[in-house]
Every structure is written in structure tokens, then in C-alpha cells.
Amino acid sequence: MDFHETSACTNLNIKESFTRLTELVLQAHRKELDGVRTRASKELALAELKENESKPEGPVNSSKTCWC
């Protein structure tokens, strides 16, 4: 936790403390987004793997009828 001594009366460290607070919020947001991206990419990879496992290997024999 950061501590900034500020004074609204003399305008001491007001801008600096808000700037630092904004930086900390953005860093936390970036970490959260990186975690979401990592989890999403892992879930997509697992879904693709499951989809590939469920597909039969080799050509599929299917008779199609033309209704022309």
C-alpha cells in the first residue's frame, strides 16, 4: 500500500498521488486481463482438442441424395 502525504490547502502531492493511484489501478487491470486471456486461450485449446477427438478419422461414407 502506498502512502502519500498530501495537502489540499497547499496543493502538496495532489497530482502525484492521483497519478500513482491511476497507475496502480491500470496495473491491476492489466494483470486481470492477462489472466483472463490466458484462461480463455487454454479453454479454447481444450475445446479444440475435444472437438478434434470427437471427429472420426478417415473418410466418412455418406450417401447423399439429389432432389433435383
UniProtKB/TrEMBL annotation:
This is Ras-related protein Rab-15.
